[in-house]
Description:
Pfam families: DUF7730
Bound molecules: zinc ion
Structural class: alpha/beta
Domain DUF7730: 38-273
Radius of gyration: 23 Å
Protein name: DUF7730 domain-containing protein
Amino acid sequence: MRETLNKALRRARSVFEPSYHAAWPLRDGDIAKPALNPQRRCPLFEKLSAELRITIYRAVLTDPHRFLHICRNREWPKRRAWERKQRKVAHLWCMDMDSPFPTWQHACYGERYEQNPGSLPRFVSRCITKTDDKLLSLLLTCRIVYSEALPILYRDNTFHFRGAPGLLAFQSSISTVQWHAVHHIHLSTLYDRAAMFYLQDEVWPPENPLNWEECGRLLCELPSLESLKLDITAQIDARNLDSLLMAALNPLKSANAKVFEVELNVKPSPAVWDRLREANFVTTFRERPENVEAYGTGISLSL
Ligand SMILES: [Zn+2]
């Protein structure tokens, strides 16, 4: 009797089970792509050429003039249960492209010092980023649309990361195929004395050297990078500047991109260039002002 019931249950389930792996499309490329219904009666595919569909996908999914910030959803403080269920990262179109500050200090991150009468200023951070731009809605309408448009999302946008923590969280939240499809990366970070001596691992910035090395390794494995641009703020006394810059630049030297630029706020000595002479990047110098109103000086954010 029990066996009969189990057979009936399996038959009933099989009617509703999809013919493709449950993890697709989240692991697109890592597992077999399902058979796709050609959707011949859908005007999008029946009447529009591939070129026109690509134009639509680009209009919906990309913006060549703005960073697509990848904001890490920090788990601390865990005040409420819903905060623990958040995804590792959220996206946010840049609203502050003309900012003179280092990119990690953009107003996009919603952080500031709050002045309250009668008490010390309080730093207000945003642990969880909420986005309601429906960027991915089109991708989720149909498997053919997803299959056609997903590469455009990764290929045609400039993904901006706030130091290694943002990049590591993003890379671990998508499939290898999607990660390797990224063509444009901008990364902004701060290196200071603490980053040289492994003194910090719970706050950012500055960079944790171990995270930074892993970040460099992941950048080096990207096969299709068109542009890789970084702005690195170095804060240290002149005596230790070369050591600091070596620690910051060495993990990047083997990455490959058609346009590979590293912007520094200080100039290292010729000895650093001697040791990095095989590096693939070009360096520019720019002293950006600090966003003291929002960050004060020497602020560290909880990871
Ligand atoms: Zn921004």
